[in-house]
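Appendix B, example 12.
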Amino acid sequence: MEFAKDKVEWLEFDSLEPYPHVVHGIFLRHGGTSQKPFASLNIGDGIGDHPDCVKVNRELVCKALDIPKIVYAKQNHSANVQRVTFKNSDSLSVADALFTTEKGLGLAVSHADCQASIFYDPVHEAIGVVHAGWRGTVQNIYGKMFEAMHREIGTQPHHLLVSVAPSLGPDHAEYKNYKQDFPEELWSFQVKPNYFDFWAITKKQLTSCGILEKNIELTEICTYCQQEDYFSYRRDGKQTGRHATVVALKSS
């Protein structure tokens, strides 16, 4: 489903619709104050935007979802997972996956072609976000996220809901050096020579954790193909902006 407020546009996952207290959004490339070469909403990590511009756009995201505070992961294509609290939210270490049980604290990752995913455990009222490029996938960041939630709060795989935002599709996911970069267990996910279906890889990694296939929502929208709505590093190179995928538990 698509929503708009103050000229900012975002998508929400169908699988989370029954849980209105789980506020979330995948923010598109519309609205905001970004100047060329992005010329639309950008929430950071792109090349060329002034920090004040990024700050304003992040405030627009907060306002759109009515979240008092959003914490962005310090991403470096790792498989590091960190539990976030209000106490440590201003001093996070490098991580590409965040989770929390605290209400009113938004978690976010930025992305342009990489996968961004939301985890929700309705039993323990826990939420999380994951940023997964090919490096994170090779390190099985999805498995690491589940393991951390299971270890620290007792999350069970059959309770988890996982929703995956638009990302690079198999028709454009070319990796010529895959034999050096990918473990052999991923080679079978080629759809044609050197092109890989990372949507299928993600589903396999999640179900291997015990997460039920019916609880996995893959949008299967290719960011490379949908230029009007999505930034794409693969399509546009370094001169592209970043989306935000955000989730929070609404304060009572």
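The radius of gyration is 17 Å. Residues 47 and 239 are 6 Å apart (CA to CA).
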